[in-house]
User: Which sequence fits this backbone?
């Protein structure tokens, strides 16, 4: 109530329905956010259907949504596109006298009555289901006791991604009290004993009369309120300007309506929706003010909860992606006025997936919560710490100085503080855990955009991780140039297969008697402008982008095709071709079937095909590797373990794998003879191969001294520039003509 006076007339509640509609929209937006953070959902004609592990999380959110709607005084109905009742809140069942069980599944229009002789039920159906969204449209409503209610309806349509109507929400306000009040205001007869609190004051604002709902809502009896002014309800949350504007509206417009915070007799602060109307007669002017109000505290709490669901991360209570984007936009705009730099920190927890996989998601969630708390403790009060999802956090800083170098120095200082704060061990249910951060930093100024800022910070984070993790990197224009070059290379590489730009070169492999026993197929890219592109420039890119899958299949098909042509050629008969298999290739679920299909299509002799795998490929999932390798081995294909000794070698898995050959990595061969450690490793691999009945081949053999050392200790075969560089197929034929053919 206002201080010193004016209570109000009973007015309509059109603003309430509109407010509920906004809250429903916010709830749906909150549910959408759950989906963007990993919750899978499928939209059907009946609404969103949840998939997989997200069902429990969204069921809880849906229960909260139902609870909030039931707490609202507005009538809320949820309909299918054909008008079937899906859900009614308690306000509707209370007002019409039917139970939700009686009405759910029935036609909504069984309840509605047209107002006015010119209206029809068919017209209502078309208006509600096929027209646009309604705003305070009045209809009648049938009640259990055969009475009729007059309801003002707002509606909100929910559509799927293709624009089809999937649900219809109706928000209604019972306006019968308002209609009666409008008819009876001049005779000062208001529908006085309603659920809304009512008070009548004289023109000076002294309370003359209240109803029982006033006492129920405020705690003040008639004896305590009459003779006082509405200031006895004043909470202190509104300033003097608020009351001056209210009085101005009352005196000049004859009424006021809005939300106000008041205080009950027991001291509780509550929110109410208040309408004040001046009663005016031609002879006397303003004779009274009539105030009509009802408690909207539950709705305000619900509104705050809806806002929290829509804009804050449920786990850490940090701002989520949506709120972060909003604040970033404001921060970038502010730099145009302040001329000060800002910074965005893109933060990723190192090895978080390993923690989740080994200790469980509850422990992972605990770590995320604790990290969020520490990050907030480091930054200033006005700075933003947000969680994008998973283990990704963002820190947004503003006002770092007018100079680029000054801003960068301050940003680095804070980055060091962030890493130091996280460096202290975490207590995760009694277990000590050491966490490390990788941080990418992008500085921004007036000319930047939110999208550019995200790209820069993300690129800087990528550089930080590439530098070995637990590090901080700034975005630099050179990074962007490298990114542009990478994008161009990726686009060109994607067309290299179809454009016939990929080639296979073959490097001979010889035995101790210098006989060529096979070749290794090595991929090359004949770029139309750049010439031969070194494998180091595109193999890693192909792995990261997934292009290695079609490229790897092409290599396998090409090698098998060559093997088939060799079968009837005395120069090649019996010789093997070794083909490298990438991690992504081997880890495909259908890799075994793919190899079998290539053999069937080419009709190549499987005993002449050798697949080379690295230790890292096998160790990714040893059991799966054993199953796949065993199946392929049964086809007659052989296996070579490439780069052996460079990874985390384990005799336990090595003895279980169906490997035919170990390959000594060129990094060890390069220092032979002379470097004791590499000599020891080479001898150990040779001995291990002999004990496990495996052949041993050394790659990168470039000198006679290297060959002699390896031969002395029992190495079976060699590959390297001492014998030949990788050759095109025609050059390989010339090379083989100069060497004694080998029959296996």
Assistant:
């Amino acid at each position: 109530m206002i201080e010193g006076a004016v209570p109000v007339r009973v007015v309509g509640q059109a603003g309430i329905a509109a407010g509920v509609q906004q809250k429903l929209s916010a709830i749906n937006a909150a549910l959408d956010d759950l989906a963007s953070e990993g919750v899978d959902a499928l939209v059907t004609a009946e609404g969103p259907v949840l998939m997989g592990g997200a069902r429990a999380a969204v069921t809880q959110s849906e229960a909260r949504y139902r609870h909030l709607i039931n707490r609202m005084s507005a009538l809320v109905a949820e309909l299918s596109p054909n008008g079937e009742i899906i859900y009614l809140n308690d306000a509707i069942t209370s007002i019409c006298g039917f139970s939700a069980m009686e009405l759910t599944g029935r036609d909504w229009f069984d309840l509605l009555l047209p107002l006015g002789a010119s209206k029809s039920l068919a017209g209502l159906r078309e208006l509600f289901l096929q027209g646009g969204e309604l705003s305070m449209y009045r209809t009648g409503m049938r009640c259990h006791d055969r009475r009729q209610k007059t309801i003002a309806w707002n509606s909100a349509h929910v559509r799927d991604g293709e624009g089809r109507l999937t649900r219809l929400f109706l928000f209604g306000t019972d306006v019968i009290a308002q209609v009666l009040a409008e008819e009876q205001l001049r005779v000062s007869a208001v529908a006085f004993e309603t659920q809304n609190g009512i008070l009548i004051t004289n023109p000076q604002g002294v309370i003359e009369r209240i109803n029982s709902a006033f006492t129920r809502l405020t705690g003040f009896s008639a004896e305590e309120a009459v003779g006082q002014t509405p200031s006895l309800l004043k909470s202190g949350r509104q300033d003097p300007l608020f009351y001056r504007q209210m009085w101005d509206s009352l005196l000049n417009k004859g009424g006021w309506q809005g939300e106000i915070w008041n205080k009950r007799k027991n001291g509780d602060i509550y929110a109410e929706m208040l309408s004040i109307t001046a009663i005016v007669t031609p002879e006397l002017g303003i004779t009274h003010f009539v105030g009509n109000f009802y408690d909207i505290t539950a709705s305000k709490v619900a509104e705050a909860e809806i806002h929290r669901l829509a804009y804050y991360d449920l786990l850490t209570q940090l701002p989520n992606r949506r709120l972060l984007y909003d604040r970033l936009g404001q921060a970038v705009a502010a730099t145009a006025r302040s001329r000060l730099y800002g910074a965005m920190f893109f933060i990723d927890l190192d090895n978080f997936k390993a923690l989740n996989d080994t200790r469980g998601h509850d422990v992972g969630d605990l770590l995320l919560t604790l990290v969020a708390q520490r990050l907030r403790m480091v930054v200033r009060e006005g700075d933003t710490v947000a969680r994008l999802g998973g283990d990704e956090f963002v820190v947004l800083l503003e006002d770092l100085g007018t100079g680029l170098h000054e801003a960068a120095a301050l940003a680095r200082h804070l980055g060091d503080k962030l890493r130091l704060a996280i460096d202290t061990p975490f207590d995760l249910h009694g277990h000590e855990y050491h966490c490390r951060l990788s941080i990418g930093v992008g500085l921004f100024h007036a000319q930047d955009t939110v999208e550019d800022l995200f790209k820069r910070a993300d690129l800087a984070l990528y550089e930080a991780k590439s530098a070995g993790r637990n590090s901080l990197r700034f975005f630099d224009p050179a990074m962007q140039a490298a990114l542009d070059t990478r994008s161009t290379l990726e686009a060109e590489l994607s067309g290299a297969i179809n454009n016939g730009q990929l080639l296979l070169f073959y490097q001979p492999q010889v035995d101790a008697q210098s006989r060529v026993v096979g070749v290794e197929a090595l991929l090359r890219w004949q770029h139309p402008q750049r010439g031969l592109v070194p494998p180091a420039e595109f193999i890693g890119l192909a792995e990261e982008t997934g292009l290695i899958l079609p490229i790897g299949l092409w290599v396998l098909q090409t090698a098998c095709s060559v093997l088939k042509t060799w079968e009837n050629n005395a120069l090649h008969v019996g010789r093997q071709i070794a083909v490298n298999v990438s991690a992504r290739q081997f880890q495909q679920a259908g890799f075994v079937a793919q190899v079998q299909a290539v053999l069937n299509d080419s009709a190549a002799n499987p005993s002449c095909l050798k697949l080379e795998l690295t230790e890292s490929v096998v160790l990714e999932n040893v059991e799966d590797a054993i199953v796949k390798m065993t199946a392929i081995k049964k086809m007659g294909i052989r296996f070579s373990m490439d780069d052996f000794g460079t990874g985390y070698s384990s005799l336990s898995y090595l003895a279980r794998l169906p490997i035919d050959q170990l390959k000594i990595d060129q990094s060890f061969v390069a220092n032979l003879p002379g470097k004791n450690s590499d000599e020891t490793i080479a001898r150990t691999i040779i001995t291990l191969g002999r004990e496990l009945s495996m052949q041993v081949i050394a790659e990168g053999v470039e000198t006679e001294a290297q060959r002699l050392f390896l031969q002395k200790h029992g190495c079976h075969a060699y590959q390297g520039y001492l014998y030949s560089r990788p050759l095109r197929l025609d050059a390989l034929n010339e090379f083989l003509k100069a060497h004694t053919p080998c029959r296996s």
The first strand starts at residue 41 and ends at 44. The CA atoms of residues 216 and 557 lie 84 Å apart. The first helix runs from residue 14 to 36. The chain has four domains: 14-179, 184-300, 314-475, 487-737.
